[in-house]
Specification:
The complex is a heterodimer. By secondary structure, chain A is mainly alpha-helical. Chain A is 73% helix and 0% strand. In chain A, helix 1 runs antiparallel to helix 2 and helix 2 runs antiparallel to helix 3. Chain B starts with a helix and ends in a 6-residue tail after the last helix. The interface between A and B is medium-sized, with 27 and 30 residues.
C-alpha cells in the first residue's frame, strides 16, 4: 500500500472511531437524557462519517488499487491526490465546526467549496488511471 | 475470500435490500398509518444504509483485501474481527427494535435498548479500527 493510501485509510479509521463515538454519545443521550447539549454534535457526526470515513476511505483504496502505468511513476502525477487529501481534511472541519461553535455560515460555504476542490483534485489524478489493460 | 468477509458482505447485501424496503415504507406509511412507530423510519433508514450496508461492506472487503499483518496472523486477531461483526449486527438489531418500541410506547425498555445499541455499535467500530490498523502498511 503506498504512503498516501496509508494516510488516507488511517485518517479514515480515526474518523470512524470519532464518528461512532459522537453517535454513541448523542444517541445514548436520546435513550437516557443526561446532556441535551450533546445534540450539537450532530453536524460533526454526519460530516465526519460521510466525508471523513466513507469518502476518505474510498479515495485511499482507489489510489492504492486502481490500474498503474508500466513505467515510473507507476501512479502518474500524484500531486492531485496529495492535494485532495489536504483539502478534504481542511474542508471537513470548516463544514463541521461552525454549527458547533456558532461561527458564521460563510465558513461552512467555504468548507464545502474546499471539499469540491478536493473532489476535483482527486478526479484529476484518478481519471487517467481508469483504464483497461489495453490502455 | 475468508469466511468473515463472506459473512460481512452477504449481510451487507441483506441490509441493502432492507434499506430500500425501509425507504419504500417511509414513503408509503404516512398516509396509511399501518406501522406503529413509522415516525422513526427515517433514522432507521439512514443507519441501515450507512452502517448495515456501506460500513459493513467496507469492513468485509478490507478484511479480505488489505495487506496481511503477519504470517502467523494474516488478518489480525480473528476473534476481534468476529466480535466486530457480532457487535455491529447486534447493535443494529437492538437499534431497530429500540427505535420502533420508542415510537410505540414511552417505557424505559426502549430507551435502554437504544443505549445498548449505540454501545454495541461503538465497540464494533473500535474493534474494526484496532484489528485493521496494523494491516495498513506498505509491502
Amino acid at each position: 500500500m503506498p504512503p498516501l493510501s496509508i494516510w488516507f485509510v488511517r485518517t479514515a479509521l480515526l474518523y470512524l472511531a470519532l464518528g461512532f463515538t459522537f453517535g454513541a454519545l448523542m444517541l445514548s443521550n436520546k435513550g437516557v437524557p443526561y446532556a441535551p447539549e450533546l445534540w450539537r454534535l450532530r453536524s460533526l457526526h454526519i460530516e465526519i462519517l460521510m466525508i471523513g470515513w466513507f469518502i476518505q476511505f474510498a479515495m485511499g483504496v482507489a489510489f492504492w488499487i486502481f490500474p498503474r502505468w508500466w513505467q515510473e511513476p507507476r501512479r502518474g502525477d500524484e500531486r492531485g491526490a496529495y492535494l485532495a487529501y489536504g483539502l478534504l481534511n481542511i474542508g471537513i472541519w470548516l463544514v463541521a465546526l461552525p454549527p458547533l461553535l456558532g461561527w458564521a455560515e460563510p465558513i461552512v460555504t467555504t468548507g464545502r467549496m474546499v471539499e469540491v476542490a478536493a473532489a476535483i483534485a482527486f478526479a484529476t489524478h484518478i481519471w487517467p488511471r481508469s483504464v483497461g489493460r489495453e490502455g | 475470500m475468508p469466511p468473515l468477509s463472506r459473512w460481512f458482505i452477504k449481510t451487507a447485501l441483506l441490509y441493502l435490500v432492507a434499506t430500500f424496503v425501509t425507504g419504500v415504507l417511509a414513503v408509503l406509511d404516512p398516509p396509511l398509518q399501518a406501522i406503529p412507530g413509522s415516525g422513526r423510519l427515517a433514522i432507521i433508514y439512514y443507519h441501515l444504509f450507512m452502517l448495515g450496508w456501506v460500513s459493513q461492506l467496507i469492513f468485509g472487503v478490507a478484511n479480505w483485501m488489505f495487506p496481511v499483518r503477519s504470517r502467523e496472523a494474516p488478518r489480525g486477531n480473528e476473534q476481534v474481527g468476529w466480535a466486530s461483526y457480532g457487535l455491529l449486527n447486534g447493535g443494529l438489531a437492538l437499534l431497530l427494535i429500540g427505535e420502533m418500541l420508542r415510537a410505540a410506547s414511552s417505557g424505559p425498555a426502549a430507551l435502554w435498548l437504544i443505549v445498548l445499541a449505540y454501545l454495541a455499535l461503538l465497540l464494533a467500530g473500535l474493534a474494526f479500527v484496532l484489528n485493521t490498523w496494523g494491516r495498513i502498511k506498505g509491502h
